[in-house]
Amino acid sequence: MKSSDRVHGILQRSSLEAQDRDTSGSILCAKSYLGFYMAQLQFEARQLRKTYLCICEKHAPSSCPWCIEKPLASQRGRAFVSDRGKTAKTEVVQVSHLHDESGRPFSLLQVDLHTGRLHQIRAHLSSIGHPLLGDEMYGGKPWVRVMLHASRLKLDVPSLATPGC
After folding, report:
1. Cut 0.90: pTM above it
2. What is the CATH number of the domain that holds 110?
3. Which of 49, 83, 85, 107 could form a disulfide with 72 if both were Cys (CB 3.0 to 4.6 A apart)?
4. 87: Cα within 13 Å, side-chain hemisphere
């Protein structure tokens, strides 16, 4: 949460995370300040778990799970693998191999993020030769959109019930 999110100490938004413009799917929002605070603590402690579905070019390795652990840096809105970057871990937990009508190979991946860096999935998959379909910024072939979808967000929601009630 940035200081610009508050006016006179009052929270001005309920969204807990930013999602890339080219990504579809779930966004976590809070209905109360307590809910926002509890979720924000988990978000900052990296306890929030995000699962994505994406379609990448070519057939990705099918022996799951497998991880990409390469440090990422960013510059001018683009992420890239760099020894000077921040730690980033992307785990591929499920792979399905697909083909289009012309026989061109694709892979449908279920991906879990262990860190949340800018364009992490896009940069990591591109770095191993499997850019996302539609992701021209990272070497993917043109498509109607970038094939990246935030499918699941998981966090612990403590009971707000008062003891004895």
Report:
1. no
2. 3.30.2350.10
3. 85
4. 3
For the segment 89-98, what is each residue's pLDDT rounded down to a tens digit?
Answer: 999 999 999 9
Asked if the structure places residue 104 within a domain, the reply is yes
Structure tokens at 19: 């999602």
Domain range for 60 is 49-154
The answer to the question of residue 63 being in a domain is yes
DSSP 3-state assignment of 136? Answer: helix
Instruction: Answer whether residue 14 is part of any domain.
Output: no
Number of other CB atoms surrounding residue 23 within 10 Å = 19
Domain count, the chain: 1
The amino acid at 4: S
Mean pLDDT of the chain: 85
Active site residue 20: yes
Among residues 20, 100, 112, 156, the one annotated as catalytic is 20
* Gap between the Cα atoms of 157 and 154, Å rounded: 9
